[in-house]
Amino acid sequence: MKKSVILLVIFLCSAFAKAQCAMCRAVIESGGDMKAAQGLNNGITYLMIFPYILVGGIIYLVYRSTTKKEVN
Theoretical Cys-Cys bridge with 25: which of 20, 33, 34, 55, CB 3.0 to 4.6 Å? Predict the structure, then answer.
């Protein structure tokens, strides 16, 4: 139960994280178009999700294969 609560808090708090680097943010904001800056930030965040999903899937598969119970 505690693990699921911790994971839920991590996922909810990460939604407020800023994904842009300082240089990308400065260039976008100097143009004054805040919709473009927010779109770029959302795009970076979405692209960042997939490596974590892949690594998490691999870790899960390794965990599942090492903890299989023997059927008699």
Answer: 20
Q: DSSP state, 67?
A: S
Q: What is the pLDDT of residue 47?
A: 84
Give the DSSP letter of residue 18.
-
Cα distances from 14 to residues 4, 18, 49, 65, 70, in angstroms, run: 15, 9, 11, 30, 39
Yes or no: say if 48 and 20 are a contact pair by the CB < 8 Å rule.
no
Amino acid at 64: R
